[in-house]
UniProtKB/TrEMBL annotation:
InterPro entries: BEACH_dom, BEACH_dom_sf, BEACH_Domain, NBCH_WD40, WD40/YVTN_repeat-like_dom_sf, WD40_repeat_dom_sf, WD40_rpt. GO terms for cellular component: cytosol; membrane. It comes from the Eukaryota. PANTHER family: BEIGE/BEACH-RELATED, NEUROBEACHIN. GO terms for biological process: intracellular protein localization. PROSITE patterns: BEACH (PS50197). This is Neurobeachin. Gene3D superfamilies: BEACH domain, YVTN repeat-like/Quinoprotein amine dehydrogenase.
Length: 524
């Protein structure tokens, strides 16, 4: 809204300056900065604590009458609702001015064309006051600052939270953990961290929510010794590995990585691609049995992605292939199948076919809230499609950013792309390059915090790093692990980061994005 990207002719000002992009204050280098900094201010505690006073002035009891006068909140009378009804005036000469105008001073105005025009100009140029919704003071909003004084405040656990690593869980198999899905919401039948190894052995590791809810009602220090993740008993006891091993043959040329798997939001099904018959398949995590085979591509399926889930577990699944296309599918949470109709589950039809790539698709991300699919081909570029299949644009990275490998999209519309050889780019959803950086690690996993403000990366050197997403400013480096990182995910409360390691283990880290928030740092 601040940029005249279409180059419209908006005229010339009186001082002969051409009207084009909106002029920004000195503290904002670009429109994105202006929006981001304004949001930080408007969502800050300082504003939250005084929001009720603003409501009182604009919509509330201080909008009109003696309270408005006392608050110096009085405007031109034509701006108030009900003071004028332009529809009742039909002819410039014969129009009558409503009686309300003469209440204040009947001698001030004459019924002339000029006055009527002036009245219309006043309303058009200066707008009108909103409706008055409240006639008594609005209560103040509860503030996070007040939590500091509660006995169960998160700050009470500050020293305990300084510990970066919560636990390490080593699986009997030494196969690298190549996919991690932390679906840990308390209402799930089995809140769990589902892991899949390179050898396609999966584990449903139960999640204990007490650790994730530090400072919440019901949490007690007696429970603090509980570790958040309990190893899948079938894996730990080696008693039911046959229920956890995917034995169907994958295409020999496929390199197993995090993109080959998707776990549904209820932890009950795993979708796997890379099979020689050009399908991707659905397996039950309870039994390990195959429940559905989905065909649609003309070549091997190379990557899968899942959107956020709706109530009931419905979501979009996107499959990318060597045939250079992507297919958008619908996962029915009710029927636990791809497609809407259980009677035709053998041959489900994709919702959309996404074309435009010239090479094998290697990475993809889908956001249902934005209605967008962003995908990367082996030799570039990255494309943005709508979920109806329309190609919107290509994301053209800098000169040396040619081979996209990882994509993460926030619901705010920012897209982080990792290219080969340690190169990152941040694009707006409109295709504008906002920031770029280069690091010395071969990154294997990236993810964005739920608000899209922070980026977490991990790679072959075994170090988890936290960055500010808007400008790639480094915020924190965790202690190095003794093996490379292959996959990552965050618990539902954004307080625990779980990484899958090349050594066949998972590591749980304490993470608190608030500690890098400018307001938290300034106050605490």
């Amino acid at each position: 809204m601040f940029v005249n990207s279409n180059g419209y002719n908006l005229g010339v000002r009186e001082d002969e300056v051409v009207v084009n992009d909106v002029g920004l204050p000195p503290w904002a280098k670009k429109p994105e900065d202006f929006v981001r900094i304004n949001r930080m201010a408007l969502e800050s505690e300082f504003v939250s604590c005084q929001l009720h006073q603003w409501i009182d002035l604009i919509f509330g009891y201080k909008q009109r009458g003696p309270e408005a006068v006392r608050a110096l909140n009085v405007f031109h009378y034509l701006t108030y609702e009900g003071s004028v009804n332009l529809d009742s005036i039909t002819d410039p000469v014969l129009r009558e001015i409503p009686e309300a105008y003469f209440i204040r001073d009947p001698h001030t105005f004459l019924l002339t064309k000029d006055f009527i025009k002036a009245m219309e100009a006043q309303i058009q140029n200066f707008g009108q006051t909103p409706s008055q919704l409240l006639i008594e003071p609005h209560p103040p909003r509860s503030s996070a600052m007040h939590l500091c004084f509660l006995p169960q405040s998160p700050l009470m656990f500050k020293d305990q939270m300084q510990q970066d690593v919560i636990m390490v869980l080593k699986f009997p198999s030494n196969s690298p953990v190549t996919h991690v899905a932390a679906n840990t919401l308390p209402h799930l039948t089995i809140p769990a961290v589902v892991t899949v190894t390179c050898s396609r052995l999966f584990a449903v590791n139960r999640w204990h929510n007490t650790v994730g809810l530090r400072g919440a009602p019901g949490y007690s220090l007696d429970q603090a010794h509980h570790l958040p993740i309990e190893m899948d008993p079938l894996i730990a006891n080696n008693s039911g590995v046959n229920k956890r091993q995917i034995t169907d043959l994958v295409d020999q040329s496929i390199q197993i990585n995090a993109h080959c798997f998707v776990v549904t939001a209820d932890n009950r099904y795993i979708l796997i691609c890379g099979f020689w018959d050009k399908s991707f398949r659905v397996y039950s995590t309870e039994t390990g049995k195959l429940t559905q085979i989905v065909f649609g591509h003309w070549d091997v399926v190379t990557c899968l992605a899942r959107s956020e889930s709706y109530i009931g577990g419905d979501c979009y699944i996107v499959s990318g292939s060597r045939d250079a296309t992507l297919l958008l599918w619908y996962w029915s949470g009710r029927h636990h199948i791809i497609g809407d109709n259980p009677n035709s589950s053998d041959y489900p039809a994709p919702r959309a076919v996404l074309t435009g790539h010239d090479h094998e698709v290697v990475c993809v991300s889908v956001c249902a809230e934005l209605g967008l699919v962003i995908s990367g081909a082996k030799e570039g570029p990255c494309l943005v499609h709508t979920i109806t299949g329309d190609l919107l644009r290509a994301l053209e990275g800098p000169e040396n950013c040619l081979f996209p490998r990882l994509i993460s999209v926030s619901s705010e519309g920012h897209c982080i792309i990792y290219y080969e050889r340690g190169r990152f780019s941040n694009f707006s959803i409109n295709g504008k390059l906002l920031a770029q950086m280069e690091i010395n690690d071969s990154t294997r996993a990236i993810l964005l915090s739920s608000d899209g403000q922070n980026l977490v990366t991990g790679g072959d050197n075994g170090v988890v790093e936290v960055w500010q997403a808007c400008d790639f400013k480094q915020l924190y480096i965790y202690p190095g692990c003794d093996a490379g990182i292959r996959a990552m995910d965050l618990s539902h409360d954004q307080r625990t980061l779980i990484t899958g390691m090349a050594s066949g283990s998972i590591v749980a880290f304490n993470i608190d994005f608030n500690r890098w928030h400018y307001e938290h740092q300034n106050r605490y």
